[in-house]
């Protein structure tokens, strides 16, 4: 294959990956708004998460099984990965995030959660030898400064417990991107999303049945766009859009882009979530939060500008997955 052909294929792959990543981010961005409307009527975070991923797993069952036809079912070697993905990246990530949303505005919770992308950079350095360069370090520092502004230390308006939940969600987010990006052929993206949600839903249901996880639902009308609507609307939105579509698209994008680039592209979820929360719940960001968000995005832009094409490594960036985003070298 000629260099020109390789570069063209790389650009097409990168454009497709970024498009899917933006679709996933927009779908994920609806979660806080839908969940917030349910929790305002008495739903517990555990109930929201269990119902969300349980219905999503049910919806994805047939498509996921069809995607496994060439694999003759779920490969045994994929079981540990599926268990970790379902418990930590899906169930753990959603539960910690929704606990944060109970105490923080959606946009603030998301900005804190996405501090997890710094853990992705650290993991790729320690595990795969991809040492961050100067712009990456500068971008990471800027992102941390932005997070301090998001915390608004002079405002006294943030719940420290909510902040802790959001940071724990950031750890789960880092696990999600690093595991989802592994294109080792063990599982198709749709099958990984389905099996992970199935594991997470079963585990959460078991905890709820034993009383270890507070579980309460309701059939009261919720408020969206300033009007009362049936509780079925946010439940359907959470399961179909913010879970089934979001996770399937997110895993596909991670395999096209790699963990680092996909995690930075996923930061646009913050922008989508703030827009949805503002439009549907009236949660306008404060001045310090807005300034902090801009600084965080500036930091991410610096890290993105520092991207180059590293040598392909097993279980991480695929050949050309980064090169197509910055153009051919030379």
Account of the 3D structure:
Helices cover 71% and strands 2% of the residues. The chain has a two-stranded antiparallel sheet with strand order 1-2. The radius of gyration is 19 Å and the shape is globular. 51% of the residues are buried. By secondary structure, the chain is an all-alpha fold. Mean pLDDT is 78; it is low at 1-8 and 308-330. It has one domain (26-326). A hairpin with a 2-residue loop joins strand 1 and strand 2.
**Cross-sheet strand order for the largest sheet:** 1-2
Give me the secondary-structure category.
mainly alpha
> Would you tell me the overall average pLDDT?
78
Helix content: over 70%
Number of helices: 14
**Strand proportion:** under 5%
Order of helices and strands: HHHHHHHHHEEHHHHH
Shape: globular
What oligomerization state is this entry in? single chain
Give the radius of gyration. 19 Å
* Uncertain parts: 1-8, 308-330
Number of distinct beta strands: 2
Instruction: Give the termini distance in whole angstroms.
Output: 17 Å
Total discrete domains: 1
Largest sheet: 2 strands, antiparallel
């Amino acid at each position: 294959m000629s260099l020109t052909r390789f570069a063209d294929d790389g650009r097409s792959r990168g454009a497709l990956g970024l498009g899917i990543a933006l679709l996933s981010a927009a779908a994920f961005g609806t979660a806080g708004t839908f969940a917030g409307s349910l929790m305002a009527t008495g739903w517990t975070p555990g109930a929201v998460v269990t119902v969300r991923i349980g219905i999503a797993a049910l919806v994805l069952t047939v498509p996921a099984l069809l995607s496994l036809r060439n694999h003759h079912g779920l490969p045994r070697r994929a079981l540990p990965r599926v268990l970790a993905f379902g418990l930590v990246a899906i169930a753990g990530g959603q539960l910690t995030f929704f606990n944060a949303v109970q105490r923080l505005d959606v946009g603030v919770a998301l900005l804190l959660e996405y501090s997890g992308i710094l853990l992705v950079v650290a993991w790729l350095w320690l595990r795969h030898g991809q040492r961050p360069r100067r712009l990456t370090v500068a971008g990471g520092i800027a992102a941390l400064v932005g997070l301090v502004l998001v915390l608004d230390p002079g405002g006294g308006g943030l719940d420290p417990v909510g902040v802790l939940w959001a940071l724990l969600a950031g750890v789960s987010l880092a696990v999600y991107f690093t595991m989802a990006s592994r294109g080792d052929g063990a599982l198709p993206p749709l099958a990984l999303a389905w099996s992970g949600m199935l594991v997470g839903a079963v585990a959460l249901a078991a905890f709820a049945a034993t009383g270890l996880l507070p579980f309460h639902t309701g059939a009261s009308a919720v408020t969206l766009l300033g009007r009362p609507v049936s509780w079925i609307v946010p439940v359907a939105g959470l399961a179909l859009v913010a879970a089934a579509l979001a996770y399937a698209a997110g895993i596909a994008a991670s395999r096209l882009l790699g963990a680092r680039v996909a995690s930075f592209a996923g930061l646009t979820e913050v922008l989508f979530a703030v827009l949805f929360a503002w439009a549907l719940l009236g949660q306008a960001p404060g001045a310090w939060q807005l300034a902090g968000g801009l600084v965080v995005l500036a930091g991410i832009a610096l890290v993105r500008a520092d991207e180059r094409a590293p040598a392909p490594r097993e279980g991480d960036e695929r050949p050309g997955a980064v090169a197509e985003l910055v153009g051919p070298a030379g």
